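Hi there,

I know you've been waiting on this one. I reran it after we fixed the sequence typo, so this is the corrected version. Both the input and the resulting structure follow.
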Amino acid sequence: MIFHFAAQTSVSIAAADPDADFHANVTPIRHLIAACRQRRHQPVVVFAGTVTEAGIPSRVPVNEDEADDPITAYDRHKLMAEDDLKAAASQGAVRGATLRLSNVYGPGARGPRQDRDILNRMIDTALQGAALTVYGTGEYVRDYVFIDDVVDAFVRAASHPDRINGRHFIIGSGHGVTIREAFGLVAARVEAITGRRVPVVSADPPAPLSDLERRHFVADPSRFSAATGWHPSWSLAGGIDRTIEALTCA
């Protein structure tokens, strides 16, 4: 059983050096599949993909019927790795599937990139008493899924290899909120727990927002639920509270 999480996850880094991103996001799965063929070993492989592999959704909520149209080098490479896994599964080299993740947040390691782990960064910023900044109106809808639900999804996928084999699934909470609403909830939960009020302010973005940043996204994870029995159990407020607890106890 293999859970494949290793990746380079920054869209901007991928754009600046697509060759390096290819070697980070495509080459490892190809080496893994080649090793399985050589050793005639058929593990269950659950690969961490991203909902942005499909590009800009034509509608919400989004399910697996959405046509793939990646618009960044990062998303193209994630889709290439996913397609390699599907091909290997169809040929019997491995069994496995890709879980395309929406906006994951919660306790855990945080990378150095300012364009990643946004909700976690806002929670940390609020705990420091600083204002939370929303670019523009903050009207764009996101689906934030708590890390514990993501871990459960991977475990359940690996436990049902025949039901998930050769497929990809959309993983999210199934509930959409605007970025402003999410930041406002962070401010409210931090105030409820610490007694410290922090404002949510608007600002012009330092550069024009990309099409991905201006998209709306809500997941429809019903097919994965039907295949594995998985259901997200954490509300956004509950997940934020748990993250606050983890950060204040660290």
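Quick highlight: Strands lie at 2-4, 44-50, 95-101, 103-105, 132-135, 141-142, 144-146, 167-171, 177-178, 200-203.

Best,
R. S.
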